[in-house]
Amino acid sequence: MEAVILFPAIDLKNGQCVRLEQGDMARATVFNLDPVAQARAFAAQGFEYLHVVDLDGAFAGKPVNALAVEAMLKAITMPVQLGGGIRDLATVEAWLAKGIARVIIGTAAVRDPALVKAAAKKYPGRVAVGLDARDGKVAVEGWAETSQVTALEIAQRFEDAGVAAIIFTDIARDGLLKGLNLDATIALAESISIPVIASGGFASIEDVKALLTPRAKKLAGAIAGRALYDGRLDPAAARHDAVGDVRLSSGVPAIRDADTAAHHALRVRKVADPFRASADL
Ligand code: AMZ
């Protein structure tokens, strides 16, 4: 049994839920003034794992929208993964203590890999790395800067570090509803053993279907943003129409401590792969 996890995204700017285009703060669309209401809406739609980004925090290098994040944590029971401005162990620990299920480290994964290794060792399963690529190179500091390293080079640094997941974003597609860059994401996933989550460009049910094909079997999940806010992707359709069968499963990479694993993401069962043993299904 395999599954992909669909993570609905809440990106916070000035305490509001926005979507950017290609990460550009000047091209922001406000979709909801109330992040708590948005988080509750995603929970009501059946999603069970939330992806949250503190955009101002990613630019500032420290948490900025902490009050909004904390309000969401109080309002919902589903696990939350959070990125943006998490650059030192104290911030990692503060968020985990406040109830964040999994922190996402981006800039520091490039600039301070020892932090990722230390955090992942101390908090197994609770540290993810966010790798956001522009022209093949990883962008940092709110994507205002582009490094000289590729996502694969960074990911390989953490192969044995106990990192729970790599969240790979194709910046060129992000917020533009162009469809996920499955080719690049699958290539990354096939080159490392860390589970990879696809992000950037999620557009429609076609992306869900593509995620469920055998060639995408190494992907652990995908993040959907604008397509959910503007109604192009219907969560109910994602669950039912794409494959005709959905169930909550425990067969996905560990995403939360066992004692809190009662919460599951929206997991869509993969279609049978005729070229593999039938044990999956
Ligand atoms: O859209 C952006 N400009 C942007 C964005 N979504 N900039 C950073 N981020 C996200 C990354 C990752 O989840 O995808 O912020 C997190 C990384 O933050 P940091 O502070 O660790 O680099």
Brief rundown of the structure:
The protein has helices at about 35-45, 55-60, 65-75, 90-100, 105-110, 115-120, 150-155, 180-190, 205-210, 225-230, 235-240, and strands spanning about 5-15, 15-20, 25-30, 50-55, 80-85, 100-105, 125-135, 135-140, 145, 165-170, 195-200, 220-225, 265-270. The chain is of the alpha/beta class and about 280 residues long.
Strand arrangement within the widest β-sheet reads 1-4-5-6-7-10-11-12
Distance between the termini: 5 Å
CATH topology: TIM Barrel
Flag low-confidence runs: 241-265, 269-281
Tell me the fraction of residues in β-strands, as a range: 25-35%
Main beta-sheet annotation? 8 strands, parallel, barrel
Number of helices: 11
Query: How many structurally independent domains?
Result: 1
On the 0-100 scale, what is the average pLDDT? 87
Q: Kindly provide the name of the CATH class.
A: Alpha Beta
CATH architecture: Alpha-Beta Barrel
CATH superfamily descriptor:
Aldolase class I
How many β-strand runs?
13
Bound molecules: aminoimidazole 4-carboxamide ribonucleotide
**What's the gyration radius in Å?**
17 Å
- Overall outline: globular
